[in-house]
Design brief:
The chain is α/β, with parallel strands linked by helices and 278 residues long. A seven-stranded mixed β-sheet has the order 1-2-5-4-3-6-7. Strands 8-9 form a two-stranded parallel sheet. Helix 1 packs parallel to helix 6.
Length: 278
């Protein structure tokens, strides 16, 4: 493949690939690092921005040399970030899904995925931050991977199993530090959670849900429960209450036997009551 210009767009039936500089400013294309992302907005913030922060903290010359592989919605997070070299926007997904037919995704590439991989390989990254499980993708890019320490990966897994209070951004930053051979202790555990409920509140919700199932006296096969969190720790990610009311109303019309458990509101205390009354 010949080298493509910044604004080239690859039009495909089921996939697109658009590589462009942040804020659409004309500037040299200097790819050194690649950050790959899962599909959610939370991943773009908690994983993507944390990885970018820590890469620059370890290597100040990395400003303006970091590419981000993301989807159209996530691209808005990085659109005007001067630390970003190119936003590589694609609809192609490389990590395995839950269905058995998706398990080889990223290992056996269809023509559209192969074209995306070929484009990325031509950029010759120094290192890649792997926030998705896609060994087939990383193997083909021939770049160093920012792996976590094995011992820390095991301890993090056990911590998640116990619903321990650990920030995803902390894990991300320690992975970057490990690549740069910096001590893990320099990343503090004491960070705000900008998007989600805390592990303490999640544990309370799980306990309530177990009790709710027992009280419902419904056969397990027929017991469908929807747990709804109308509140988050940030106004940026808090869904409008009218939108929640409309969505929940539609769900209950389609599935009238559904058990709905509305989590308590922690930052805007009236939201749960509003939803319940509606």
């Amino acid at each position: 493949m010949n080298k493509q210009s910044d604004n080239d767009v690859f039009s495909m039936p089921t996939c697109y690939l658009d590589c462009y500089p942040s804020c659409q400013q004309e500037k040299p294309d200097t790819p050194r690092f690649l950050v790959t992302l899962d599909v959610g907005i939370g991943d773009a913030v908690a994983v993507g921005l944390s990885a970018v922060d820590q890469i620059v903290a370890n290597d100040p010359l990395a400003v303006g040399t970091i590419d981000v592989l993301c989807n159209k919605l996530q691209a808005q997070i990085f659109a005007c970030d001067p630390r970003i070299n190119r936003i590589i926007e694609t609809s192609k997904v490389f990590f395995p899904g839950t269905h058995i037919s998706q398990w080889l995704r990223g290992i056996l590439l269809d023509p559209e995925a192969a074209r995306v991989v070929h484009f990325l390989r031509q950029r010759r990254y120094e290192a890649i931050f792997p926030s998705i499980v896609a060994p087939g993708l990383y193997f083909r890019l021939h770049s160093h991977i920012m792996y976590p320490r094995l011992t820390e990966m095991v301890s993090n897994f056990l911590a998640f199993r116990k619903q321990a209070h650990i920030h995803l951004s902390t894990i991300v930053k320690r992975m970057v530090d490990y690549y740069f051979k910096k001590a893990a202790s320099r990343v503090s555990q004491d960070q705000n959670i900008p998007l989600y409920l805390s592990s303490e509140h999640m544990q309370k919700a799980i306990q309530k849900l177990v009790a709710l199932k027992k009280e419902a006296a419904i056969e397990a096969d027929d017991c469908k429960v929807l747990v709804l969190a109308p509140d988050t720790a940030s106004a940026v990610t808090r869904p409008p209450i009218d939108l929640l009311i409309a969505a929940l109303g539609s769900v209950l019309v389609a599935c009238p036997k559904l058990i709905v458990y509305v989590l308590p509101s922690y930052t805007e205390a009236t939201r749960s009551l509003q939803l319940l009354k509606a």
